[in-house]
Amino acid sequence: xxxxxxxxxxxxxxxxxxxxxxxxxxxxxxxxxxxxxxxxxxxxxxxxxxxxxxxxxxxxxxxxxxxxxxxxxxxxxxxxxxxxxxxxxxxxxxxxxxxxxxxxxxxxxxxxxxxxxxxxxxxxxxxxxxxxxxxxxxxxxxxxxxxxxxxxxxxxxxxxxxxxxxxxxxxxxxxxxxxxxxxxxxxxxxxxxxxxxxxxxxxxxxxxxxxxxxxxxxxxxxxxxxxxxxxxxxxxxxxxxxxxxxxxxxxxxxxxxxxxxxxxxxxxxxxxxxxxxxxxxxxxxxxxxxxxxxxxxxxxxxxxxxxxxxxxxxxxxxxxxxxxxxxxxxxxxxxxxxxxxxxxx
Amino acid sequence: xxxxxxxxxxxxxxxxxxxxxxxxxxxxxxxxxxxxxxxxxxxxxxxxxxxxxxxxxxxxxxxxxxxxxxxxxxxxxxxxxxxxxxxxxxxxxxxxxxxxxxxxxxxxxxxxxxxxxxxxxxxxxxxxxxxxxxxxxxxxxxxxxxxxxxxxxxxxxxxxxxxxxxxxxxxxxxxxxxxxxxxxxxxxxxxxxxxxxxxxxxxxxxxxxxxxxxxxxxxxxxxxxxxxxxxxxxxxxxxxxxxxxxxxxxxxxxxxxxxxxxxxxxxxxxxxxxxxxxxxxxxxxxxxxxxxxxxxxxxxxxxxxxxxxxxxxxxxxxxxxxxxxxxxxxxxxxxxxxxxxxxxx
Lengths: 345, 345
Fold this sequence. Notes:
The structure is a homodimer. By secondary structure, chain A is an alpha/beta fold. The first copy, chain A, is built from nine helices and 15 strands. In chain A, the strands form three sheets. In chain A, strands 3-4-2-1-5-6-7 form a seven-stranded mixed beta sheet, sandwiched between helices. Chain A has a six-stranded mixed beta sheet with strand order 10-8-12-15-14-13. In chain A, helix 8 links the parallel strand 13 and strand 14. In chain A, helix 1 crosses helix 9 and helix 4 runs parallel beside helix 6. The relative contact order of chain A is 0.16. The mean pLDDT of chain A is 97. At the A-B interface, strand 8, helix 5, strand 9, strand 10 and strand 12 of A face strand 8, helix 5, strand 9, strand 10 and strand 12 of B.
């Protein structure tokens, strides 16, 4: 099993027509990833269509177990079922898999990676590397620089999650449902379980009826702990879907052992990789989805002492990141870049 | 100073043309408030227009200091400046004022009332009673039944606040900005400081640059403490404006002295006044703005043990209430009902 990619890898994108697949192509282009070739794989339904890749049309092929011959890097983003079924074939064919689904994220021999946070974990991969849940990826970019300075003891998050996390069809449903509402017309939800126009709802992932936590919340907790290397971190979480198109926001409280120095936290975040500080109290300018959309950086702001913790040891902040970029495609391509030979990217 | 109203009070509504003013008229109608008459007061700009009240047109009059002759009950909802200027005149004229602004909410001789929570506080009024901030009113309806059973020791809230909190013009801005976005057109914000279409942002209230908390957050903390009678309650809070029209949502964590019994909390809330339990884990059906809008009840659900508190003493829940009703007009009319002679309403 090669731990690293060749200098000019032959790339396959699985799920090329999805919301994340499209962004994977754009990330490869914009970051000038040194791909020798890019193969696009999708379901039979999309096969035969073509998409532009680095300025030239590429015909989409149907995904089969034989699709990975001659592929060095397979970027999967077609759901957990597809990953479980086809990623082993890709590895057998000699490819390194970077998987955007939840299929392998908690397996001990699959590194779960946010390059700004735990890049060294990549070295131990056995052919598959997992790209985290979008909330976990965005959150840990903001948390890691703080945790490096002082260990995090407790975390609370309430999320404001965009349509894109449920795919391109959910983004379109938000547009259609909203247009119908503005026209005074009814719209029956097709993709998400609840009306979406000017509405919000508890995340649509299936819920464990015993605990009252949904699958999204369970993933965010488990993955945040794993990425930060804090397996026992207490994490309170509420995941809510809001009528926003493609950037996730989260209100966080982060508890440390000692009283919080907000200026010191701000200074750490101001120079942290992947973070852009947006924290202007005078102009009331803080992280917003419209300013995070299409941006690589995670926006962090509203840094302040949390009034809910009388000890003064809790920092409150508001974090927004593009769900399709840092929450998915960008992070996957960054992982792949980390597997290139030194100096190749 | 009469502590109570006559059985058939003569009513004035100040700010009758605003989003809350319209709902005040509707609440009086729908609850068959025994008004002998209803006078509508607004700025000179609206004077001369008319609105339907209990089936008959009422001409809007310009608000002046002389407007309150012969008025028993003045419902103010025209902003803090108008309340400070005209409420004393109304009291001098013999009216009882129920004020929806923040002008008097923290004055010791002005009761701050959510009838389901602290109705006895009304008895001590000196002519003015204050209607709370919308978040505080909605939150305390859900918190009070829990607090009666076991004292609350700590509270955390992240809000998802609707356009209506910034008035009818903000609701219209959300519609216009969203329609423009769907049409691919630009829209320059007129009412709120940030783009609102498919976007969210930290609450637009002015921020204290020293603490990093905005005026909305400061009000919610102070008023929640006062209504619950917990002057020292630690309250963590993040107030966010989301693209929803008229119902506020909040993700809450409520900490007690002993481990939480979720079933007991659910049973308390199921019979609590002003609360509707919406807590169906199997069908993934929890409080949503579209189901709270136009409803008197505060919807409460997603009851569960908060995983962020290893002691098990924290209850997590999600609460949604109509900002214009329980968050404003309904609560004001309920206060007025509480001032009627026994049996009059």
